Amino acid sequence: AYVIAQPCVDIMDKACIDECPVDCIYEGPRKLYIQPDECVDCGACEPVCPVESIFFEDDVPDKWSDYRKVDTEVFAGLGQLGGASAVGPLAADHPLVSAQAAQAA
Ligand code: F3S
Ligand code: F3S
């Protein structure tokens, strides 16, 4: 699956949402998250992020290696939700995101 790495934190441009054909990009308080079991690996979201935060999971740069599992882990216990637009924002961020210092564009 594709994942959203550290640059999205607090920036949350959301251009990616409009590109996803399966509506699997969910909003958290400080970052967006791709549901790995709903993502169809089309790659459409990756080039539109203005801060280059989206990567195929195996291609996340080493400096953000902690983020390879963040999207998967935030959906543990939530499972497949069937589409972000219907579900609305997630209640909480992954702990790694919550622990990040605030960042601005
Ligand atoms: Fe975040 Fe980039 Fe999407 S900043 S919300 S991953 S367009
Ligand atoms: Fe969606 Fe395709 Fe990205 S399924 S999350 S636009 S890789």
TrEMBL record:
Cofactor(s), names only, from the UniProt record: [3Fe-4S] cluster; [4Fe-4S] cluster
Pfam families listed in its UniProt record: Fer4
InterPro entries reported in the protein's UniProt record: 4Fe4S_Fe-S-bd (IPR017896), 4Fe4S_Fe_S_CS (IPR017900), 7Fe_ferredoxin (IPR000813), FdxA_Actino (IPR054830), RnfB_subfamily (IPR050294)
Keywords: 3Fe-4S, 4Fe-4S, Electron transport, Iron, Iron-sulfur, Metal-binding, Repeat, Transport
UniProt keyword ATP-binding present: no
GO molecular function: 3 iron, 4 sulfur cluster binding; 4 iron, 4 sulfur cluster binding; electron transfer activity; metal ion binding
Free-text cofactor note: Binds 1 [3Fe-4S] cluster.
4Fe-4S ferredoxin-type domain mapped to chain residues: 30-59
Stated role: Ferredoxins are iron-sulfur proteins that transfer electrons in a wide variety of metabolic reactions.
Name the UniProt record assigns to this protein: Ferredoxin
